[in-house]
Amino acid sequence: MATKPSIPKGTRDFTPDEMDRRNYIFDTIRSVFRLYGFRQIETPAMENLSTLMGKYGEEGDKLLFKILNSGDWRQGITADRFAEDSVPQLTNRICEKGLRYDLTVPFARFVVQNRDKIQFPFKRYQIQPVWRADRPQRGRYREFYQCDVDVVGTDSLLSELELIEIVREVYRRFGIRVSLHLNNRKILAGIAEVIGMPDRLTDITVAIDKLDKIGLDNVNAELLEKGLPCEAVDRLQPILALSGTNVQKLMALRQILAGSETGLRGVEETETILRLYAGSYADAASSDVFRVELDLTLARGLNYYTGAIFEVKALDVEMGSITGGGRYDNLTGIFGMPGVSGVGISFGADRIYDVLNQLDLYPAAGNAQTKVLFAHFGDAEQLCCLAWARRLREQGVNCEVYPDICKIKKQMNYADQKHIPFVAIMGSDEMAAGTVMLKNMLTGTQQAVTKEEIMNCIS
């Protein structure tokens, strides 16, 4: 007996109905990106590991899917070497490529390679799958789509404002109430300085970034395990516990970070972004649909962020981040192109899909749905239907001609199961009269219509 096929954990198949919903997500996000002047690019699914490794921190590097070298990947490696090498050493010998972890690092590589072909500031968007060797769980997949939008070649904080506006507009169109959490890596660097641990920023941010998942006690335990002294962890507690309005938090931070030039720059940048946003949206502070909140526990554990960082969460569904990003000043420098600042955000299409499903916020029917099915009684009638269908398709109407010669009941059941709103029935009488019997599957009404009349009846 044949084994039932399966797919890898953390991946999913999508039916036509599900793809209609996913394409609704992609099309909505894409249309907002274009509103702001962003243009689309694509990059390969796999990159050289030299491009990917070291860009996401130690935690991220562990989640990279590596690809075995082509051909005899064991060539030149003795049995003793296999036994002696650690897993990372062995992996470096037998793998030169990996599946992309995100779209930002490949984008940075793209900018460097195509610097003479693009206009700066360069505004791009990218909608493609990424892969992470993570433990699958609700809302977390090993293969998932990201919808990224980035601008490189400008230091202006108007870019951060524009990204906030894009987030607001995308979720307004979806009808999802969200909260955008904002922080700044310079503020985090300043915090590391004032608690006496400036060289432990990575350890601090990686731990803080898990606060929502594992809780404060476990974050503190992780920091202690990594060798931070108790007094430094104790000094961190009141900072993480800061509350109040955005203005109140920033005022408190100015006092806390008074001895850190880097930290104060982060405060100033955050104040500017919030001021620009308040100027663009007078109702921002009172909105219960879209909130912007300064969140000092937001760390975004990826090493390449250097300025503002963002994370967006749905207010009405228990779900992790559905959008995230930030500013990165040094990423292209790693590839030999220093001095190019960038900022971007990524929409997690798979998590948005789950949120829309839970809240039942999809439109009633997708634009890709068949609108008219031509049903018929025989070969001659089927041939006549082909001409009618071609005429409708030329006018942009999605339609099908039933492929088999069978009972009308079976053809009507097909239309009903596919939720096709209209069935055009062609019999010998209709052929002779130059009409079809058009049935509205929602109301049950039907009428004879000509080729000239059918468009008005299905509109």
Radius of gyration: 28 Å
Could you tell me the mean pLDDT? 90
Structural class: alpha+beta
CATH structural class of the largest domain = Alpha Beta
What is the assigned CATH homologous superfamily of the largest domain?
Bira Bifunctional Protein, Domain 2
**Beta-strand segment tally:** 16
The protein's oligomeric status is: single chain
What does this molecule look like?
With 459 residues, this protein is α+β, with helices and mostly antiparallel strands. The chain has 2 domains: 288 residues, BirA Bifunctional Protein, domain 2, CATH 3.30.930.10; 87 residues, Rossmann fold. The chain is built from 19 helices and 16 strands. An 8-stranded mixed sheet has the order 1-5-6-11-10-9-7-8. Helix 16 links the parallel strand 12 and strand 13. Helix 8 runs antiparallel to helix 14 and helix 13 packs antiparallel against helix 14. The longest helix is centred in the N-terminal third of the chain and has 20 residues. The protein is elongated. The chain starts with 15 loop residues before the first helix and ends with a helix. The model has no long low-confidence stretch (mean pLDDT 90).
Concise synopsis of the structure shown:
This protein is an alpha+beta fold.
Short key terms for the protein model shown above:
single chain, about 450 residues, alpha+beta, BirA Bifunctional Protein, domain 2, Rossmann fold, 8-stranded mixed beta sheet, 5-stranded mixed beta sheet, 19 helices, 16 strands, elongated
